[in-house]
Design goal:
The chain is mainly beta. 8% of the residues lie in helices and 48% in strands. It has an 18-stranded antiparallel β-sheet that branches.
Length: 412
């Protein structure tokens, strides 16, 4: 989603608490090592992040450098973070987040685990309360991922397909309970496979307006999507928050069944592929590619469960367009981004990006429009150890669509 950390955070928590945030930034990714190797220690020491800037401002003459104790298995790192943010679909947003991070086994062979929750209230009277956990067992043998969320979420919708227009927008107000949980087992060096159960329940659904597509497709006052999910994943990235190389590929199959309480029988398939290449080869600049394809294979999902702009798990597809701007039974998406340093110490960086989305023209399955966007952005290093950046981007779409997008961590 988005997170822009306020000054109060930097006054309250130290660098080791900041590192506890690493896994919450990337809970949809499997098996990635977010820690640096010993050989990179000198290189990291030469880098600067916001914590370095803050401590340099606070440091008084004669102050001694504080050496932190190493993190040990079983030790819990807590953080409580106030923050502000902004997106096109929420306006300005206030958030308070609590997080606990810990290792269940040797930190050299086991990824850090985390459990977190937050309360989000937006300018448009939206409320979001997530509870998320990412648990790694000994030697990363198993990964348990929990994504539970409550939404009270008034939002505009514009109809179906790639030819919907802004003037046909309706406001839909609803409440949404998401209960997603999976267990994945390591089956190879970079391979994981597993299964889980996904439920999305929406109620008190109210439409304000009379969009033809919404009326013809059907908008239920309440709906349930309930089904098992099968996942296979490959991840050769060394750092999933800000990759400098490697490949990530994830395949998710979700059959929703009336037998499990679903409003209808329908099936979906999501493919998520990301590739990272250093360019030039000896620099830290990166050319990144992303393909995200979300397909309804059969049946008729509830309207609000259809593939849509910005409704991927991290809400990051299609910078340049408001969340939900396009929606239909099938979505194809590609993006490329070039990430480069602006300062030698790594504190500031920049990006340029371009993306394209296409949606099937309901009720047919035909794709006959590509919807592009482009933009540029600034990166501010929050944590040099995990290479976590605050990402501030401005995207430009077609027909005057544009907007500001803020994230903690890279968009993909």
């Amino acid at each position: 989603m988005f997170l822009l950390f306020c000054k109060l955070w930097f006054c309250q928590i130290e660098a080791k608490s900041l590192s506890a945030w690493q896994t919450t930034l990337n809970q949809e990714n499997i098996g990635a090592d977010t820690l640096i190797s010993e050989s990179e220690t000198d290189e990291v020491a030469a880098q600067k992040d916001i914590m370095d800037v803050y401590h340099n401002l606070r440091k008084k003459k004669g102050d001694k450098t504080v050496i932190e104790e190493p993190i040990k298995p079983g030790k819990v790192l807590y953080s409580v973070v106030p923050a502000v943010g902004y997106t096109l679909s929420t306006g300005f947003t206030g958030i308070v987040t609590a997080n606990a991070a810990f290792y269940l086994h040797d930190i050299a062979t086991t990824n850090i685990s985390s459990i977190g929750t937050s309360f989000v209230y937006t300018q448009y009277n939206q409320i979001m309360v997530p509870i998320q956990a990412n648990i790694w067992t000994k030697n990363n043998g198993y990964n348990v991922v929990i994504d539970w969320r409550f939404f009270k979420y008034p939002q505009d919708t514009y109809g179906l397909g790639g030819h919907s227009i802004i003037e046909n927008s309706d406001n839909i107000n609803y409440k949404h309970l998401r209960l997603h949980q999976t267990v994945l087992k390591r089956i190879g060096n970079s391979f994981y496979a597993g299964a889980g159960y996904f439920m999305d329940y929406r109620w008190n659904v109210e439409e304000y307006g009379d969009n033809n597509d919404v009326r013809d497709y059907g908008l239920m006052k309440k709906s349930m999507s309930s089904g098992l999910v099968a996942i296979m994943s490959f991840d050769s990235r060394k750092n999933s928050i800000n990759p400098e190389g490697g490949l990530y590929a994830n395949l998710q199959y979700r059959p929703n069944m009336k037998l499990l309480g679903s409003s209808s029988n329908w099936q979906s398939l999501i493919t998520d592929v990301r590739k990272y290449v250093k360019l030039p080869g000896r620099s830290r600049n990166v050319l990144a590619f992303w393909s995200y394809n979300w397909l309804t294979l059969s049946g008729k999902p509830p309207y609000l469960d259809l593939p849509g702009t910005g409704w991927d798990p991290s809400n990051n597809t299609a910078r340049g367009y408001i969340q939900g701007r396009f929606r239909s039974l099938k979505m194809l998406y590609v993006e490329t981004e070039y990430r480069f340093a602006l300062t030698q110490n790594g504190l500031l960086g920049g990006v340029v990006f371009a993306n394209a989305q296409s949606f099937s023209n309901w009720p047919s399955d035909k794709f006959n429009r590509i919807i592009p966007a482009t933009g540029l952005g600034l990166r501010i290093k929050v944590n040099k150890t995990s290479r976590t950046n605050i990402a501030v981007d401005y995207g430009f779409g077609v027909n005057g669509s544009r907007g500001l997008f803020v994230n903690l961590g890279e968009v993909f």
